[in-house]
Amino acid sequence: MSAPLYNPFEDLVFDPHFCFLSGALTTERISVFPEWLMDHFKFGDERIEMMDKTKAYKYSDLELPCAPEVKEAFAQLDLKIQAAYKKGFEGMAALEEKLLFQWTGRIVYGLLYYEMVYERNRLQKLGEDFNLSPMLRERFGHFHLMLQSLVEPISFVGQKPWSIIVFPLKYSADIFSYRDDTVNLLFSMGVNGFGIIACLQDNGAIGERQNDIVEKMKGHVLHPIQFEELYARFHYSDYIFQYKPEYIINATDTDISIEALPIKKVGSKPVFGIWNDDMFAQLLANYWQVYGIEREDILKFQKPPLSFLENPYSKEFIVPETIDLPF
Questions:
Q1: Strand, helix or coil at 107?
Q2: What average pLDDT does this structure show over 108-128?
């Protein structure tokens, strides 16, 4: 490219007058959560908390400054996703992963943007400077660059920077389940017909780690409690992920290519740390609390951890229809 693309994490620029994606001056706005999705599930007036739990926003109030050409690009992307959504699991599963990355990335980045603005404003009130570690600046900068593939000639070659899975899922028609981890760039969404889990900066490592259970799931429509357990496995795997994803980024006068380097063990340090059943049970209990399942129910003395995905003894997949719990 003739000039470097906009990177708000270099100078920590999160200004309502500059497009969140291109950096262009603008007065336009775009919602963080697609309006058609909020309208369909009627959650626009519900509230979502920031990470420190002291600030919450209405979903419909979450908006990003957006240049007209970026707004139009996201509008066109939304039309593709909405058309696929109407076809259920088959429609969503047929989408190119790059489109799913851009669509889920828009939501995760939008929430990250609000976290940055909130933390900056909080520190300013205390007379303190807002800053990020070099590691976070690099991670978020790479993520932002990849998201710019929606409007810039950016291609992904070889290993992809993400793990994204789409699978059949049974929910009541009016339920919309959403979770994220903005710092670690994780996304999950479950609706009637399908679920999506996306690790947006893992270079495929977490997807590879969970591939065995994902293969066992094929041909089945997951029960919601299985979906929660699956996302917990992805989330905890990210927590014990011990390597920083690296990329080869080649820029020419006309385009940029991004290749994610495969995550490989160096020396005696494994790619993932030790799986701690106690810590995982604490995380899983948070996701299963709607079913009244506590950590003590998951971990019982001299018994393997409770799972609704696999029989703890035979490791066979648990057929969803055998689970006697509500949808």
A1: helix
A2: 94
Mention every residue, 6+ apart, whose C-beta is less than 8 A from residue 1: 152, 153, 251, 252, 253, 254, 255, 256
* Whether 92 contacts 197, CB under 8 Å: no
Of 144, 145, 155, 153, the C-alpha closest to 98 is 155
Q: Are 89 and 167 in contact (CB under 8 A)?
A: yes
Coil, strand or helix at 233 = helix
- Compute how many other C-beta atoms are within 10 angstroms of the C-beta atom of residue 234: 24
Which tokens in the block code for residue 155? 């291609």
pLDDT in tens, 166-208: 999 998 878 899 999 999 999 999 997 999 999 999 999 999 9
Task: Give the tokens for residue 39.
Answer: 């309208």
Structure confidence by residue, pLDDT tens digits, 250-271: 999 899 999 999 999 999 999 9
Per-residue three-class SS string for 17-39: CECCCCCCECCCEEECCCHHHHH
Sequence-distant (≥ 6) Cβ neighbours of residue 25 within 8 angstroms: 17, 18, 19
Q: Return the closest-CA partner of residue 139 out of 114, 164, 108, 166.
A: 108
Which amino acid belongs to residue 12?
L
Cβ neighbors of 10 (< 8 A, separation 6 or more) are 137, 141
Radius of gyration from C-alpha coordinates of the chain: 20
Angle between helices 224-239 and 277-288 (to 10 degrees): 140
φ, ψ of residue 18 in degrees (nearest 5): -120, 135
